[in-house]
Amino acid sequence: MLADNAGTFRLFRVFGVTVYLHWSWLAVAYIQYLFLRDAHLLEHFALYGSLFGIVLLHEFGHALACRSVGGRAEKIILWPLGGIAFVQPPRRPGAVLWSIAAGPLVNLVLVPVTVGLVVGAAVMLGDALPALQDYLYWLTAINAILLAFNMLPIYPLDGGQIVQALLWFFVGYTRSLLWSAWFGLICAVLLGVSMLWIAVSQASEQAAWLVVMALFVGWQSWRGIVIARTLAQYEQQWGQSV
Ligand SMILES: [Zn+2]
């Protein structure tokens, strides 16, 4: 899924990277709109747009870091579970590690920036413009949550891919992928089953979203396991490390 540009439309191109939006992003935005039709609609839209901006900066972190080590990165697709930067770093653990780590690093840099905005606004504005101060507070929270979520050491999240790249230094690519992907699959099954139970028993929309996330993690992990097994067979057959 999302391997090609099917179901997407081109937004813009900057630094040689073209940004596409998947149609499902608009569908989810519309569903959110139906749920959130209240007095704070403008704030919700501002936050949803800012979430989009923070995710985009994160993906550009991946893409530009990949370029800096001689890899290819020409495309970013935004979809409801975030963004995907299509990066092809050189097949070296150090180059891959930098390309993956640069995404969360952008969020890390944004932590003092957003906290500074919250504190600065509180000092300068006092009790004035509470909507703006609320917005800055939520912007800070969204960035921090994205950072924490992305750094979970679960493949294929950034944290999981960082662990895989670190393992690569010691046990080779194939085993690093196999171990990381198995861990990802186990986590996905545990998360998926428990969240499905909560989603059904408590009719929780958040839990339903986490089920979708678990399906994505599980599916990507399964693909990782299949690739690692194929590579292992190849290595056995030809007696060389791939
Ligand atoms: Zn990332």
Rg on CA atoms, Å: 20 Å
The average pLDDT value, as a whole number, equals: 89
Q: What's the helical proportion of residues?
A: over 70%
Measured distance between first and last alpha carbons: 26 Å
- Residue runs with pLDDT of under 50 for 5 or more positions: none
Order of helices and strands: EEHHEEHHHHH
Bound molecules: zinc ion
Give the number of helices. 7
Largest sheet features:
4 strands, mixed
Please indicate the count of domains: 2
Structural class from helices and strands? Answer: alpha+beta
**Shape estimate:** globular
Q: Order of strands across the widest beta sheet?
A: 1-2-3-4
What proportion strand?
Answer: 5-15%
Outline of this structure?
By secondary structure, the chain is of the alpha+beta class. It is 71% helix and 12% strand.
How would you characterize this protein structure?
A 4-stranded mixed beta sheet has the order 1-2-3-4. It has 7 helices and 4 strands, in the order E-E-H-H-E-E-H-H-H-H-H. The protein has 2 domains: 1-151, no CATH class; 153-242. Strand 3 (72-79) and strand 4 form a beta hairpin. The mean pLDDT is 89. The chain has helices at residues 23-35, 41-68, 93-125, 130-150, 158-171, 173-202, 205-238; strands at residues 8-14, 17-22, 72-79, 82-88. Helices cover 71% and strands 12% of the residues. It has 242 residues and is of the alpha+beta class. The structure holds zinc ion. Zinc ion is lined by residues 58, 62, 103, 150, 158.
